[in-house]
Each structure stands twice: as C-alpha cells, then as structure tokens.
Amino acid sequence: MPTSALGLSYVQSTILLIAAGTVLLFMLVVASFKLSSEASNKTEAISVERLVRMATRQAQIGLIDAETGQRGYLLTGDEAYLKPYTDGERSAREGLAAMRERITHPDDIKRLADIENYIDDKLEELKTTVELTKTGRRDEAIAIMQTDRGRDYMNELRADFDAITARSDSAIGEGLESLDKSAGRLSMTTAFGSMMLVSFAALAFYIVANNTGKLISAQESLRELTNDLEDRVKDRTQSLTEANEEIQRFAYIVSHDLRAPLVNIMGFTSELESASGKLAGYFSKTAQDIDEPAAAQIAMEDIPESVGFIRASSVKMDGLIGAILKLSREGRREFKRERVQFDEVVQTALASLQHQLDETSSTVDVDPELPSVVSDKIALEQIVGNILDNAVKYLMPGRPGKITVTGEESGGRVKLRIADNGRGVAENDLKRIFDLFRRAGRPDRPGEGIGLAHVRSLVRALGGDVTVQSKLGEGTTFTIDLPKKIAVRANKEQPA
What we know:
The protein is about 70% helix and about 10% strand. By secondary structure, it is of the alpha+beta class. It starts with 9 loop residues before the first helix and ends in a 13-residue tail after the last strand. The protein has helices at about 10-75, 80-100, 105-135, 140-145, 150-225, 230-285, 295-330, 340-350, 355-360, 375-395, 450-460, and strands at about 340, 365, 370-375, 400-410, 415-420, 465-470, 475-485. α1 packs antiparallel against α2 (about 80-100), α3 crosses α5 (about 150-225) and α5 packs antiparallel against α6 (about 230-285). The protein has two domains: about 1-330, no CATH class; about 340-490, Heat Shock Protein 90.
C-alpha cells in the first residue's frame, strides 16, 4: 500500500521505514553475534579434543616404535634398530607432555596418572634390556622380556589410551552436530535478515517511483495551464521543486541509513567465514583420523557454502544501496559550463582502463581531431568513461579488442561515436539497455546495472541524447549527440 494511502508524509514514511529497518537489523546483529560466538566456542572445544586425540595417539605410537626397535636390537644385535628405539622413546615422552598440557576432562586426568607410571615403567624396562645387550648380556635382557611384564604394561596403556580416544571421539561428534545446528540457525537468521533488507529497499523504490509518477503528472497539468495561470505556475513550480528535493533526500536517507547496519552484517559474516575456514583447514589436515565423514563434509563444504551465499547477498545489497546514493548525489549537483576538449576526456578515461586494455591485448583508435564543447566536464568524463568501460568489459573472449572513437560537428551540435568489436547486444535487449538495474546478455561481469542508465540520464540533462546500434557477436556502437554549448537552463535539470 502506498504511504500516501496511509495519510503519511514523505518524512513520516521515511522515519517509519528507517525505524523498522533499524529494529530488524539490531535484532539480526544480536542474533548473529550470539550464534557466531556459540559457533566459535564449539569450534575451539572441538579443536582441543582433536589435539588431545593426537597427543594420545603420538604417545601410543611412540611406545610401539620404541618396543619394536628394542626387540629388533635384542634379536639381531644390529645397532640400526636403536634409531627407531630412541625416536620412539622421544615421541612417546613428547606425546605424554602434550597430554599433560591439554587434558582437562576429570576421567582423563585420572587415567593420565596411571599412563605416566606405566610409560615410565615400560621405558625403563626397554632401556634396561638395551643396555644389557650393549654390554654383551643379551641373555639377561631376553630373560627380562620373557617375564611378560612389558606386555602387561602395554596392555594397561592400550586400555587407557583407547578410553581417552573413545571419549574424545564422542565429544568431537557431539560438538560437530551442535556446530552444524548453530550454523544452520545462523544461515537462516542471516538469510531472513537479507530478505527483509531487500524488502525495505523495494519499498523505498516503490515510494520514490510512486511519488515521482505523481510529480510528472502534476508537471503536465501545469504546462496546460501556463497561458492563463502564469503566477500560479510559478508558485506551483516552486512547490514541485521542493517536493523533488524531498524525494531525493528520502532516497539518500534510506540508502545511507541502511548501509550502516549492512556493514555490521558483513562484518559478522567475515567472522563466521574466518572460523569456518579455520575449521575446514583443520579437518582437511586431519581427515584420516575423522570417524564421522558426514560431519567433516559439513565443516569443509556445507558451512563455507552457506557463508558464501550470505556474503554474496550482502555484497549485492551493498551495490544496490550504493547505486541509489550515487543517483541521489548526481541529482543534486549543478552543472558547470566550461570549454572541454573531447580528446582530453577520452584520454583520461583510457588511462584508467590501461591495465584492462593490456590484459586483453586491445587497441584503441582515437580520432586526433575530436571536437570541443562548452559543457560540464565532470558529466562528460562520466559519460565517456562508462561507455569505454563497458566496451572493455564486454569484449569477445578469444578475440583481440578493437575500440574506435570518432567525432563530428554539425549545425551547432556534436556527435561522439564509440565503437567496439565485442560481444554485441541481442536485438530484443537493445530496448532495455539503458534501463536502471537492467543488464543485457549474460550476467558474468561485475556491476549493478546503473552505468548506461546513468549515461542516458546525464546526456539528457546536458540537452542531448544517446543511441546504440549493435549486432550480436560483432560489436556495438554508441552515439552521443550533444549541443555545442550547454543551455543555461540545463544545469537546473535533474537526471532522468
């Protein structure tokens, strides 16, 4: 329902829209922060459990390696077996130290005390048998082995290691399941917030368009009453100017105030992306130890995909808000009359595109005798820059780009033509190529669809017109028709 139907002024409608959007965004930010913190805490807990598991595994494998080296040395007398023995002993002690540092669960702490005693006893036994063998007392060393005391140590250690590993695996599984639920809630919350933001933006567009239509209708009525109501026309024109400025302020306020909370959403999305990235990287490095492949897939694929969708939606929304702000600012700017050389305008635009031209092996042929005009230099730079940017952006893949800029002067008017050999535009798309937020062809290039709409708006405000001719697969030619000298009244017209 239009706001006018509710009996509200533009300012009142703006305040209500901003208030509702602010409340929604505040709730979204609070929920996102809570869910993000919850996900971060769960990720940290999972990482700790994984470190405990790795330390336990290191201690266990180190003992096995040390025992293997000891037995090989006792049986063969080959000192080459002493290296795996010493490496295994060192690895076992390092793993034990890591377990002391990272184990916090009460049950594991009790088991750790027994593990320390058994490891000390086992390593002492291994050391004794190795030293006896080194001194030629191999029979005594073998006799110690045959007591099965070492086997008993390893059986006890294995039971404790398995118990710690099983508890850690269970905690990891529960943590991953909980993390998945939190990520799902965060995705739904952010997606809902993004949809509401888009709805607010659509409402803003509707209000502006609705009131702009009414303004145009009022202007037509005023033209019909000009002959006999000159004084009233002047008064009404003033009123309409104020209304138009109010609409522009409305668009600026809505766009500006929506951007601030959107930045918060993008910030919290970055935090979640960072946390999920760390988790995915960790799982990718330790995938062989994960007993829950579904959980690993969630951490490494599903969560990053959801975060990417949220980020893409936020970036799109930011681009649309920026487009509204840009058009609003341009609508308030007055044109400045000065002598402008078109060759300077073209060279300035090409300088900013030189990198893209080099990458695409493109050439640009500029007529050395381009005409000059008395117009607004900034507006002309924007017009030419946008068209040249489009020419470079939509070159035909695999074909070196060729752009030609020519100009002519006739009957107090100037024409500037910019032709390229790019993709071209289909005939059914030519009618909408200058429409706001509309893009022709495949949407495989960045942009919000305001460039050519802005071009047409500026050209018309300067008292001219812009046309396009194109053939799909062959290229496109834009023709800019401008007066040699801008009219005094042109600097008061607003872009269409």
